[in-house]
Design brief:
- Helix content is about 25%, strand content about 15%.
- With about 375 residues, the protein is an alpha+beta fold.
């Protein structure tokens, strides 16, 4: 018996040479996808694996034997027998020059990491290629919309590099088509219909544009308001409680204070997407108007602060009296979407096992 795969009905996979190594690939894969799968570190600024390849930044170019010029690896499909080089002296010089040019037209390179998930990508590449030379310093592109008074999204277009990731994620992932591009060259500008404000557009404030922006030109205003909170930023993976979809999120904290929320790009239910509540509705946790102690109503009808023991005893007394007079099905519980999942679990256990009733609901089930 031979080891010929074809005799077993299996077609041999196509191969190519990647930096001298023969590797297999799936038909339809791009050179970038093949290289990434084989741990080749190819830089890019316009690439988001959730989006269709764009080929705009040209940082991901590779040398392809037989091609006169380097080709964009994110838009070039792999084919059998290709010979590809992902890192050469010529390519690194090309990438460094590109990064110098990109950095030259932005007001800021270093932005607060609270701006968004991908906000450090450009700064990281600028450092990698030592591109803070200033030799291309000149005109800046983009005009920020400081007049946009929406409470969620910073529109700082003087830090925009026209990678169009925001435009593409809005269209391809959200289907909103709320933002677009006008003009060309240094006059290129990210905009909405009639060049207006986000609140007057089709924008649903999902925050997708924020999280894909590699420069912080679009930033999370609610998170950025916490930039003065001391401490190192830590991320804790959890599930958004606002509805029943089960979106994975990373809650950002500093010294036990929530400073922002970012979507989990590897979340099985959401794959980096969130709605306006999941993205921005977190500041109630530390809001100064939030109650920090129970209240009970006195004989005079007025609410007064009480201990937890007092409040729980009063609640138990009231529930017991109602059930005794009207039966266990007279009680109904509604859990809050702002409470943790563990709290929702305990509410339903209390109703079903404790009171013997299935009258339990949650505003997150829709």
């Amino acid at each position: 018996m031979t080891g010929d795969n074809s005799s077993k009905g299996h077609a041999l996979r196509p191969t190519l040479k990647l930096d001298g190594e023969t590797v297999e690939f799936q038909p339809g894969e791009t050179l970038y996808e093949v290289a990434d799968r084989h741990q080749r570190d190819i830089p890019t600024l316009c690439y988001d694996e959730r989006l269709e390849p764009f080929g705009g930044c040209r940082l991901c170019v590779v040398e392809l034997e037989g091609s006169r010029n380097p080709v964009a690896s994110c838009t070039t499909r792999a084919s059998d027998g290709m010979v590809v080089r992902t890192k050469t002296a010529h390519l690194e010089t090309h990438r460094r020059t590109l990064m110098e040019m990109v950095a030259s037209e932005n007001r800021d390179i270093d932005v607060d990491p609270l701006s968004g998930y991908a906000s450090q990508e450009m700064a990281t590449l600028v450092e990698r290629y030592d591109a803070r030379t200033g030799r291309f310093a000149g005109e800046l592109s983009g005009h920020s919309r400081e007049d946009d008074d929406n409470p969620f999204i910073l529109r700082d277009y003087q830090n925009c590099i026209s990678c169009y990731r925001c435009v593409r994620v809005c269209a391809e992932q959200e289907g909103d088509y709320a933002i677009s591009v006008k003009n060309r060259g240094f006059e290129t500008q990210i905009t909405v219909e009639f060049d207006g404000l986000l609140k007057d557009s089709a924008c649903t404030f999902c925050g997708q544009c924020i999280q894909t922006c590699p420069t912080g030109a679009l930033g999370d205003l609610k998170a950025l308001r916490n930039h003065d909170v001391p401490g190192e930023t830590e991320k804790t993976r959890t599930i958004c409680t606002y509805c029943g979809v089960g979106c994975s999120v990373d809650v950002m904290t500093r010294n036990d204070r929530i400073v922002g929320v970012q979507p989990a790009m590897d979340g099985p239910a959401n794959e980096g997407a969130l709605c306006v509540k999941g993205q921005f509705a977190f500041d109630f946790v530390h809001h100064p108007d939030r109650l920090t102690t129970p209240f009970i109503r006195g004989e005079d009808g007025e609410l007064r602060p009480a201990s937890w023991d007092e409040a729980l005893d009063r609640a138990a007394e009231g529930l017991g009296r109602v059930i005794e007079e009207h039966g266990r099905h007279s009680v109904y519980a509604v859990a809050s979407g702002r409470a943790p999942h563990e709290a929702a679990y305990m509410v339903q256990r209390f109703m079903r096992a404790g009171l013997g009733s299935n009258n339990i609901d949650n505003c997150s089930r829709a």
